[in-house]
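Sanity check

After download, print the first record. It should look like this:
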Amino acid sequence: MRTIIFIVAGLLLAALSVRLAPATQRALAAGLFTAVWLVVSLWNLRTGLSHGYTLAQELPIHLALFGIPAAAAWGLWWWSRP
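Expected structure tokens:
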């Protein structure tokens, strides 16, 4: 359930960051979102590792946690280009 919440939150934040940015700044907004979301994902990975999970267990989940919202941000930018 936590994985779904993280992905949905990331998708919502990606949509907000790209759509609320001016049209000329949407690539920058997608890039900033990606950088911030990477930090959030790494923090979440660190938390999982500190609770006894191995990197092999956590990495596939965190690739989805980071990759889906980041891809959505860049997809929204691509779709909304002038």
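If your output differs, re-run the checksum step. Summary of this record's structure: The mean pLDDT is 95.
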